[in-house]
């Protein structure tokens, strides 16, 4: 069993391993984000509504960063884009610690996420450049494992540092790890030119298909489902840490350990789950439905159960929900992309999670301020149920599409020449 697990990690070039290590350092160092809402509530005394608005700017910055990444890559390539993103993020983390007012923090968070979120699209493109096509799904899962491992250490270490030195030290640690990541990247990975110019490749093919994505109704439906699943999961980083403190009086260290549980479960189970589903050729939408059901269960547990143990059980359900949803949502989106429009499809798909950031925090904070935590958990579970029903509808639509496509193939084979 252990050998089977290890075999999932074999066959990758050095560059992929360096990217994996870099991703781990970057994610482990990003300690501010899980505690950002608590920092604004405890240290800056912001209201729930103000926290919600700042997280809206967090999401808007994510959208800008995703869009900006494509623009910058078309001029300087993915290599320099990643360096710019990491270095500028490090500088902005140092600056952000000095900002204490609501208005300036909105601007600071917007700038930070605009720069930081340039990294992910560039990193995904670098995976395509450094791996063979048949290894790309596993390479992505390997990098996600590094994210999960980083998320295991980051929140726990962040909670410990808060207890010992306060919130301000997290900004300096985050900035320093960004700089360390830049150093490792430059020293161990050499720039590799793509065999085509990114902007020319997209523009040349997409001229006559400007609205191809909007005409792809199943893809648009998938975007809505993905956005809702993001709203469900991102509550873990916005409203849930506050709930730990206000409902159960948990110190930051224990709150960090609970968030770290998310990382350790993903580390050990995500890649084997992806490998199993891919090897058995199980329909990805069925797996996504199971993931959504797990997320709904997590929030219903918070609604009905009021003992400490529910925080652990809920985290297990939400984590398995994420593992069964996000990798396969990404894969389904990629499978819908028209030839030559892959970058455009994936960019729009990534933006669905950026919109989820916006709606998740603002909606959650407003509901909590007006109606309390229980109504928020019930609202989130209801939203998840809607996503589950939409996903079942999408499954039926794609099933019919496949039947129609097979009929067309058969007709073209047997009746074309008659």
UniProtKB/TrEMBL annotation:
Annotated transmembrane regions: 16-36, 48-68, 75-96, 102-119, 140-163, 169-189, 219-241, 253-273, 285-305, 311-333, 345-363, 375-395
GO molecular function annotations of the record: transmembrane transporter activity
Stored Gene3D superfamilies: MFS general substrate transporter like domains
SUPFAM superfamilies xrefs: MFS general substrate transporter (SSF103473)
All copies of domain Major facilitator superfamily (MFS) profile, residue ranges: 15-399
Record membrane topology: Multi-pass membrane protein
Pfam families reported for this sequence: MFS_1
Keyword set, alphabetical order: Cell membrane, Membrane, Transmembrane, Transmembrane helix, Transport
Compartments where found: Cell membrane
Protein name in UniProt: Major facilitator superfamily (MFS) permease
